[in-house]
Design a protein that fits this description.
homotrimer, about 475 residues, Ammonium transporter fold, 3-stranded mixed sheet, about 0% strand, cell membrane (chains A, B, C)
Chain lengths: ~475, ~475, ~475
């Protein structure tokens, strides 16, 4: 008896979910570091500085409406909703991990966007005259994009890691993101407006690799909590729909002014519509009585938006967008039906939200579609100026041709995959250290580990009963 | 005993909700058809094409910000939210049909908008030089509008039809919509910015006629499920509020640039505010203890936005908007209290969401308000140029005068009603065929017919008990 | 026995929650008054009138995109979402007052914005040539802002007052708001873009003073209902996130075109991000096992947006925003832990939503930050023109200097506090009259007082049981 107890104590010590010291310490120290680094490095750019009025006159800009703010702010707010409500609520589907889903998503996004402003700033927005990073609305969008990569990764480990681990994952994720983004966009000169490669492929494989490193052989001990209840599925639909509706803004947020933003929005709108129909078709076809599965509707309907990300700004043509969406709805839903169980059983990758089907695979498809579309671009379709503008064949790359651009796109995709897998394994090693306060195998997917849960009904009940009665909520 | 069983078997065969073949077949075939038709017909318009930069220079457009994208995209995204979250969540009020509400809404909207781009394109955006439909952001908005008509109709038959029936309803609904819209806007030259006639009147009567054709005399067998529970009512308020908040964008999305959009937004904002107060007043006044009814708050508060749709771009004046909203809040709420039960009992129209009170009646009022406001327009109020711009007295209609325009508006309203009722009866006939997989009378309003529902608690219980325990969710 | 009964009857008469006459009467009469006043006073301004096209030509405005509508409409819609979904859902956290939270919020906001258009119009938008108030999109935003002040006050008395009392509170609240706003912005010439002083400080102290006047010594009789349940906490997160995400639009909605809006959005975005981390840190640090408290995450994460309101348009610098957010997360969370219980016990202020921690204190901090930032402004940082534009050193105030502006800012803060406390005490006196239909002490926080609640499960149970079973919802 005493033996069992002492064994348990050791276990409890090993798997102590008390983060009372580590979480506040991480938050305080890192936030303080952010303040110092922002103080040293970050300033307003010329469009958000009070000197704008002089800049405007000096550059013959006729009106305040030409400030980049008015081109991008509506899209920025839509992207912002996707990051916090979209990703946050999409993960509330678990019957007893809604606080963790929406709350930790909130925490790591809020930290990640600060770190992203710095990391991306050093690579892209550094003003060499005074050594400062100059930020405007486009930087805010890019910071949100960068955070999206980490939130995708969170989907793979949802319910199995502590908030401290998530912070570490975000710190490294943002850092890796900024580096791979610089390599792909600037050195390789690939185009990736909606981030199929840079965001989704990277984020997907990053999360899957971490999940592989943190494999829990006895996770079935938490299986009673690893499912949805009726209302948690409806909450998750809030996330799905806000992601789905605002994805045209996501893919068009940082594309070229004018036709670039316009075309990216149209392509994404169409791809997503097409995905919904094939997702429904496959979901119904592969269930015994033709019933639809909410998991597919919540997730696979979004795959078209991921897959059209890279090519959204190209002349993909409306029917091209529909075809991309058509294929991705099928592939993503089949992934949920066959691939996710296979990966858990044989590859030891436990993917809570199925990010492989929603982000990693469609991201790779998106990269390939982008490469093909770029390689097939012709002056007759794009027009001379259109070709140069769309693919940015200027400066050091003024001699590029579409076919070569296609090769560069493919190279960019490879870099994203490598960074995702490599970075994930590295970070996974760090997260395996027994110091982070993650829950024991029989205690995953449970908000009570990290949240005050007040439902009095629960306190009247004890032990295992306590968990099964959650179904009544 | 064997007799009873064989009878039941026949019933089950007649009312088999298994859509495992029909639903995937419809989705795949129709989506493939969309891809082919899009390939043949649909291209980017000059503002979303890479040739925009040349077009801009040729037309002396000084800045990318003049691209229609920046005039309409914020409104488009708001309308998009209304279609998917607004309509979807508004219908989640039923205690056990939330998946169907939000999920089937998602499916038919995603299909409908593709078909709408084609149908409306053939009528309005066909470029006769090359036989292609050229699309931009305004077409996306119009496609969403067209879909709204079908989603309104869904409200009348919510919980009583199969997803395959909904797809058929949407296919015909969009087709009829495009034709009546062309007749009303182009041939009759009525103005209908917010679609009081074209969207709400048509959609309302279309749905009511279908519901009349599909009358279920024994629907009370499902009465245990035809109500809300506490949390499903809160979910429905998400739909209500997003519709209410973004209605100014709905009514101003395709009005004239500049003052047209500005005025439409103001009028709608005011009409909706006024409606809330009279809805609350009537709801409280007609209940025994003055208690408010969530059904009224969820629905009637929106009637003002419907009724101000046609006249929103006219010089309705702020007080005029308030008056419209004032009246509609009263009429719509009284409709829920008296008319809906009357229609069900005596006219055999079972209207699940009360779309007659929220869309059909206010739509008709909106058409009348539009006719009166147009007929009363004067040059002293509008200014010479303002009159021509607002009513589009140009081209073939350059000799129109306001009084005659009022007559045309009234004619437009009649066309909308006729198309709604006629089309609904026609489509209702088709939907009565016993091949569509709709549920039996005692099995309506139940997600388990078409969705995998995982609540384990339910599986421990059997028979009727299973249904009544839903209240605990 | 008869004695007890007659005593109860008196109590019931005193505390009769039947508002069947008073609520409809207030709604009808006040809405009718609005129509009349709008008819007499309110017209479209030159940018929303059909004469815009002539105005445009006369003023050499090159394009419709220069209409203020396109500068402010996206922000307006975001603010609108904050008012109705943000404030509404933030208050749904109570397990059995979600209808009242979101429904009464809806009612009073819809009334308040009409009255605000009039009150603010008389002070700010009166055209002296014809005695009319000319409205455009900026007036709609300001009306929403004005309403925000009253909704903040609602947070303090949530669950303890009747809808009629809320209407009275809003009528006086809007009136007081318009007066203090005029004094602070026009007479004192303080700047307050995001309304730290004008909206949050005023609204906070207004609500707290009313709550103090309406102190209920026996409120613990309703303590069984004064808490959250699992799903109501998730609903509240919808409110939190929409407030958090759209706060940059709130603070930038009415700032100067161009860099003013741009900078305000950036500062708010950063301050809010910083607040999240310190809120999490303090929440975890002060709980026994380091568990996070949803109350803090739902509320304190927003404090940074409040505190950066005044200074958002100034050159606060990105790191300055982070510092403001850092401090406010700490102060606000500590407020929930220590100050709210203290105020309830010793100061007799029962603050249901903790608005003192979310609005009043951060509002005061925001006022102070604004004063310091203004006083520290220099021409070298702002540029000559930038300084004049940002602080509006024009007209009667063309001789102002930053240091004096700092003093004026501080004076503005004092006015806001005085109006809040004074107005709240006055209105609280009125609301203590026993005619308003508020609930008895043992019946607070219960939707059944004012709403038809249909959960059948409840009707099978009686007495106290009825209340405790709510936990199962």
């Amino acid at each position: 008896m005493g033996c069992v107890q002492s064994f348990r104590e050791i276990c409890d010590r090993q798997k102590n979910t008390n983060v009372r010291l580590s979480l506040p310490a991480v938050c305080f120290v890192w936030q303080t570091a952010m303040i110092i680094l922002f103080g040293v490095f970050i300033r307003y750019n010329e469009e958000s500085d009070t000197h704008w009025v002089e800049h405007r006159k000096a550059n013959n800009i006729s009106s305040d409406i030409e400030n980049d703010f008015y081109f991008r702010y509506p899209s920025f707010q839509d992207v912002h909703v996707m990051i916090f409500v979209g990703f946050g609520f999409l993960m509330t589907f678990l019957k007893r991990y809604s606080f963790g889903a929406v709350g930790f998503n909130f925490l790591i996004a809020a930290f990640g966007l600060q770190w992203a402003l710095l990391m991306q700033g050093w690579f892209h927005s550094l003003d060499y005259t005074d050594g400062k990073i100059k930020i405007g609305v486009e930087n805010l969008i890019n910071a949100d994009f960068c955070v999206a990569g980490c939130l995708i990764a969170y989907g793979a480990v949802l319910g199995k890691v502590s908030p401290v681990q998530l912070m570490v994952m975000t710190l490294f994720g943002v850092t890796l993101f900024a580096v791979e983004e610089y390599i792909i966009l600037n050195l390789i000169h690939a185009r990736d407006a909606g981030g199929s490669m840079v965001i989704h492929t990277f984020g997907g494989y990053y999360g899957l690799s971490i999940s592989w490193m943190l494999y829990r052989p006895n996770l079935d001990q938490s299986s009673r909590l690893q499912g949805s209840c009726y209302h948690s599925d409806v909450f998750a639909m809030i996330g799905t729909l806000f992601l789905w509706m605002f994805w045209p803004s996501f893919n068009s947020a940082i594309t070229d002014h004018g036709d670039g933003q316009h075309r990216a929005a149209i392509n994404t709108y169409l791809a997503l519509a097409s995905t919904v129909l094939t997702t429904v078709a496959i979901s119904s076809l592969f269930q015994k009585h033709g019933k639809l599965d909410m998991v597919h509707i919540q997730n696979s309907t979004l795959a078209g938006g991921v897959a059209v990300g890279t090519a959204a700004e190209f002349m993909l043509m409306p029917y091209g967008s529909l075809i991309v969406g058509f294929c991705c709805g099928i592939i993503s839903t089949l992934g949920y039906i066959y691939l996710t169980p296979f990966m858990e059983k044989h590859l030891k990758i436990q993917d809570t939200c199925g990010i492989h089907n929603l982000h990693a695979m469609p991201g790779v498809i998106g990269g390939i579609v982008g490469a093909i579309t770029a390689a097939a671009a012709t002056e007759s379709v794009y027009g001379r100026e259109g070709l140069v503008n769309t693919f940015d064949f200027e400066g050091a790359f003024k001699d590029m041709v579409p076919t070569r651009q296609g090769g560069h796109q493919a190279a960019g995709l490879c870099v994203a995959i490598c960074f995702g897998i490599g970075g994930g394994i590295l970070v996974g090693c760090i997260l395996r250290l027994p110091i982070w306060g993650d829950a024991a195998d029989d205690n995953c997917f449970d908000d009570e580990s990290y949240w005050e849960v007040r439902d009095e009904a629960l306190h009247d009940l004890g032990g295992v009963q306590q968990k099964t009665c959650l179904l009544w909520k």
